[in-house]
Amino acid sequence: MSEAVILRQGARVVHDSRWPRILMVWLSHLRRWKRLGQRYTVEWHGGPVNDCDKAFRHVARTAGLPRVTPHIMRHTCGTWLAQSGAPLWQSAGFLGMTVQQFEETYGHHHPDYMAEARAALDRPPKLRQRMAATEREQTSSNVMKIADRLR
């Protein structure tokens, strides 16, 4: 079993593509908690915790980060995924968004972003001028002018 999916109702593991995938390191913790009698994935005094906002705010304040929110953590995760060069499809799936949304939001953090533009500026000036002239000759309007001259 390479990956698993959990439901909020308890620490049982189910395979269902509609629910977010969890990291394998968490799976061993979930199994241990279930063995110890925990009934819910996140619980407080034996009951389910449906809203983690208050607990998250408390932990963030205790850590000296009062302005950090779950959204900021998600955005940081997306930024780090893009910076690491992880495949777009996998990164988008991990965050629960489309590839287009991921690319629009985090694409500028990817190592390949603007790689061709950077490479063009890294060329010596004379080579840049020659390449630009070649590209101008290949534009459709110039191709039409050259074709007219040949007639």
Describe the structure.
The protein is mostly helical and 151 residues long. It folds into three domains: 4-48, no CATH class; 53-109, no CATH class; 121-150. It contains eight helices and five strands; from the N terminus they run βββαββααααααα. The strands form two sheets. It has a three-stranded antiparallel sheet. It has a two-stranded antiparallel ribbon with strand order 4-5. Strand 1 and strand 2 form a beta hairpin. The longest helix has 14 residues, at 70-83. It starts with a strand and ends with a helix. The model is unreliable at 1-14 (pLDDT under 50).
What's the layout of helices and strands?
Elements (H helix, E strand, L loop, with lengths): L3 E3 L6 E2 L6 E2 L1 H12 L7 E2 L2 E2 L4 H10 L7 H14 L4 H8 L3 H8 L8 H8 L2 H13 L2 H11 L1
Antiparallel strand pairs: 1-2, 1-3, 4-5
Helix pairs in contact: 3-4, 4-5
Question: How do you describe this structure in short?
Answer:
The chain has 151 residues and is mainly alpha-helical.
Could you list some keywords that capture this structure?
151 residues; mainly alpha; 3 domains; two-stranded antiparallel ribbon; 5 strands; 56% helix; 7% strand; elongated; disordered N terminus
> How many DSSP-defined strands?
5
How many domain units? 3
Helical/strand content category: mainly alpha
Regions with little confidence, pLDDT below 50 for 5+ residues: 1-14
* Largest beta-sheet details: 3 strands, antiparallel
Strand order of the largest sheet: 2-1-3
Shape by Cα distribution = elongated
Mean of residue pLDDT? 77
Radius of gyration: 26 Å
